[in-house]
Amino acid sequence: MPDSRPRRHVKLRPGDRVAVVAPSGPVDRDRLEAGCAVLRGLGLDVVLGKHVLDRVNLDHGPAVREDRHRLAGTDADRAADLTDAWCDPSVRAVLCARGGYGATRLLDHLDWAALAAGSGPEPKILHGSSDITALHVAFGARLGVTTSFGPMAAAQIVAAPAADEDGEGAVAGLRAALFGSGTIEAPGTTVVRDGRAEGPLTGGTLSLLTALLGTPHAPPPAAGRIVFLEDVAEEPYRLDRMLTQLLQSGWLDGAAGIALGSFHDCGDPAEAGAVVAARLAPMGVPVLAGLPAGHGPRQLTLELGAPAVLDTGARHLLGGIG
């Protein structure tokens, strides 16, 4: 079993090699090229997984729309790309190209002994968000390393480049996370419940966390931890249902605090916010909503598993502390 305090991944330096892989949905070539150009602009040496541009339609029969059941290669090929990149000693970070769905399917195909051996004395970075939450949970629990939740190479970092001109966009957040530590400060946040909390940061995309409950890959209990939650394209009643599942399962028991990111395109924003607040405020711990992380236009990066401080008075989530 890994130590209860995960090993912190090592920050990058200009010239480091990073591998871009696609553990989930199919990748658009133009967006991938644009994202890789951004990464090279940060001074990184970018290599691509063998199957990163593969497209596979799952055979679920003629009644199922093919465009909703595509993955970036077979489960075995996507797992091989991820394993090869993680175990390559020349690669300092494994960056996921995009989310979608399919990452949970990889968990039974990964050679965890090989991945543990490939972690090395100085753990490398696994970076991605959304569907990649499944990999964050598994790598943290099985390998005992911190991971990086943030914008992806063929998705958010090329979606709104103008937002980075003022240093507040996805690229600025990614740069700060990969090359150094930082604080998410957001004066526009909403304090659901006042307070200050310290503990390791856990969580990710709400729908993926609930999908893992009851499986061999379920996230470790959130007791003593600051829980980050966000999601996209989920109606308020579904948010209520998923939060209720986390509460009823006991997963949230003893959590130190709750940090809520964007709930982008989740119906009426006021309704979604009210539903989430109503389910979580009775826990009696600090809750800060509206942090610029997740699927929204501003997407900063979080180090899951690392020590963090949530301070509703200062309106910030501070990570990367000693």
Task: Summarize the structure in words.
By secondary structure, this protein is an alpha/beta fold. It has two domains: 17-179, Rossmann fold (3-Layer(aba) Sandwich), CATH 3.40.50.10740; 184-319, Glucose Oxidase, domain 1. 28% of the residues lie in helices and 23% in strands. The protein has nine helices and 16 strands. The longest helix has 14 residues, at 236-249. The two termini are 23 Å apart. The relative contact order is 0.15.
In short:
The radius of gyration is 18 Å and the shape is globular. The chain contains 9 helices and 16 strands. It is α/β, with parallel strands linked by helices.
Q: Mind sketching the topology for me?
A:
Elements: E1 17-21, H1 29-41, E2 45-48, E3 56-57, E4 70-71, H2 75-87, E5 91-96, H3 103-106, H4 112-118, E6 125-128, H5 133-143, E7 147-149, H6 170-179, E8 183-185, E9 190-193, E10 196-205, H7 206-212, E11 226-232, H8 236-249, E12 257-264, H9 269-280, E13 287-289, E14 302-304, E15 307-311, E16 316-319
Parallel strand pairs: 1-2, 1-5, 5-6, 6-7, 10-11, 11-12, 12-13
Antiparallel strand pairs: 3-4, 7-14, 8-16, 9-13, 10-15, 15-16
Helix pairs in contact: 7-8, 8-9
Pfam families: Peptidase_S66 (PF02016), Peptidase_S66C (PF17676)
Organism: Actinomadura logoneensis
GO molecular function: carboxypeptidase activity; serine-type peptidase activity
